[in-house]
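Subject: complex prediction, re-run

Hi both,

The earlier run crashed halfway through, so I resubmitted it with identical inputs.
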Amino acid sequence: MARLRFSLVLVFLVACHVPSLLLAQGLSGSVGVGYAWQHTAGSGDSYASQFNLSPGFNLDELSLVSRAQDGGETLSLTAWGFGGAEPTRRAHLFVRPADRWRIEVDYSRRTSFFGLAETDLSPLRDSWELTRWKGKVTWEAGSAFRLTLAGLRGIRRGTADRAIFALNDLYPLHVGLDETMTEGSFRAESLSLPVHLAFEQSFAKYIREDRFSPNGTDTIFGGNPNQFVGAKTDRQDERKVPTSRLSAAYQRDRLEVTGGFLYSKSDLTATGMKSTLFDIDGGTVGRIEFVDSLLGSATQDTRNGYLRLGLGFGRGWTLRLIGDLRDSSTDGSLLGQRLFRVTNPAGGISEVSEPVDDASQFDVRDTAGRVELEKSFERWAAWIGGFAGSRDVSWRTTQDAARFDVNRRTSGGLAGVTVDLPARLHANVEFEKGSFTKYVFRTDPETVDRLTGRLNSDLGLGIHAGVRWRYERAENPSDVAGLRHHSRAFGFGGSWDSPSGRSNIGVDLDLVDLTTDTGLVLPTGANSVSTYDLSLISVSARVRQVINPVLLELSGTRVEDHGNTWPVDSWNASGRVTVSGPFRTDYSGFVQYYSYHESRGGRDDFRVTRYGLGIRRSFE
Amino acid sequence: MTALLRAARSVAAASLLGFVSLAANLPAIQQTEGKAEKPTRVDCAGCHEKEVGAFASGAHGRAMAAHAPDMLERSCVDCHGPAEAHLKDPGKGNITVRPDSKACLTCHAASGTLPLTSPAHTRNRVACLDCHISGHSRATASPLLLAPTGQLCARCHGSEASSFSLPFAHREGRRPYECSSCHSIHGNGRKARLSLAEKDGVCIDCHTETVGPFVYSHPPRQVSGCLACHLPHGSINPRLLTRHQIRDLCLECHAGIAAFHDLSKPRYRNCVSCHVAVHGSNRDPRLLDE
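This time it finished cleanly. Structure:
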């Protein structure tokens, strides 16, 4: 309670005194702070996996701007999320020390948690923080060109509870996550040449130094007398990725050409040892230690490019040609040894060493081309086109494994029309039909038959409405992929803004029906063939009403999945009342409600109510 | 392939040199071009004093003035078209009241978003001024936007916007990620580079640990990218997966698993319990170790 009182006093002092201090410095902007209480019923881990909000103090908003005499911004600072109640905190600083210079610094720290009871049948949990610093300095040489130097530093630290497979069983492993990413880049771009050119060179380095320890000695599912008693590692994985990119764009009334090319050569070096220690039958029989000391390396060459050409022939005719190329080649190797050491209760040691000398290779080359012809009239346009592509994949998992080669060819066509109808209606319909000869993975039948439509209307008097629908079908017979996929989606969105700006009402509805017959026979499934079945309804509504000096805001989203696979329903709703007071100060109170319910489970269900107070002050 | 690489490097180096050389001579070229006899903003201010003043003092006008003072002077006709006839006979019929995208692209010819080569937005009549302010009014969000990107994009991409309300979604607490956090709308900068470098490469901006090269890649990650298994905006399934149970997803490709994987036993129901390095491994071809 003392901590709460202290926080509330702190909130009040910040809100009251910071603006005065800032005004004295010639800054304008606003500052808003708040405090939230939270009541959680059900699984707190499940709630944290979805929202990760906490009770406590929060910086809702900070915005500071300093302007030069000509009115231009010379400094601005925005920030939110500091205090601990929200999982993300961010700050952005912009400085313009002189007309041609821009400096930007961006900071963010994101807290992530994941741990569900129902889907993860072993104790898999992630809890980590990702801190990122980004900086950018831009210099414009008048209207001629612009140079940019940028840097990025990302650090991920935290813990992950995993399982380790040993002695034909699963043991709990605790992993200390330690990852660092650093990138520097240089960019030069022309601003006024007939051809807009941009060249970028970047260099990125990524280091992972995760550390392990046993997270308990017994097996996760029980029934094994052997115990997990030790784990250690000094492993380090390091990647270096230099990347060059060149892009160009040329535009005239009837001709546009854009293109880009990227080359990257990534190098991986994985070093270090890992040791795990087990007591056989609780140590009565002896002790086993697995030690691996390995050196892994991999090199990946990537060459990607694209070209887009648009040609206007006059009288509304346009021809588009699009080409993409992606070519990547990876070679990997692993050297070292795996050691198996047995110590009997009397202290006798026997070792078996297995040398490791392995290699892998992975090549993928994608090409895609597309041609479209469009005819535009004043109130409508129609287009027709075709596309073709290839995917050539070749890989060998290990030195001794058979090479896997797939050459997939895709082709198809499309046609569409867009029309401006009376009563400010705008309609758009497109149909695409495609086929492919083989599949690389059953998860990627990219080419399907697809019909999409959209109808939007600006009815006047502040009323906007739109409907959208999509139908997808992929009937792949067993000799192609053995996968049948059907999806229907319908959406409606409507809103009304009062002419005075005091009222706003909006509603969105989304319906998605999706069925995928995977063609698999699962021993645990009720169906003879595994089917993923989703029937999703999502309804969102929002209301905003000003009754001076009170602002009322309500919003809510209801999600229901009636599909056979894993039916769930959830609520996400909030309400806020804001009262404007003297000295440009607003006082607010809010309530938020979150729920999640699984019809077949229940261990991850939760109901959470949050409520709180806030104060915001603006100053100029 | 080495020859191709060498050629590409030569083209890149030559382009950079050419660009620097042309850019160095550009101010002289532009001064010559800038002497065209066009009406200036002073001519327009005779009738449109309020609009001209608001533009000059606004962010767009100030940026023009900082870029090249002459640019601001010519700004009215550069955006609203030739004004000679309008000056003689004021009326809406002989002036472009709402400039189209081509006027903007005269200066903002950024690679990627041009009307002829970017059909989806063009066909649906989405122009620069549908998202950006012209400069006569105050921007609600940066850069010179009519509203925050999430609201702007949701006007047409409503299904994608509502995906962020699903139980598992890319959001920060209550806030959905900004669309521009991942989508490089104009094809510039780091996000565009990541997108070109990798299939679904923008994901690795934050999820750096999932990117290779690995000694042993998980092929779908390498070939099809993140979206082979994940839904990017939001999902009813944990970890934004396309299936609720991880095993259902894995088994779609790995139908011929070894017989000892008895799926009726809990220890075999979650594939990633053992195959922890699901995005790729540097030490085990079966992805049992990272």
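The first helix of chain A runs from residue 2 to 24.

- K.
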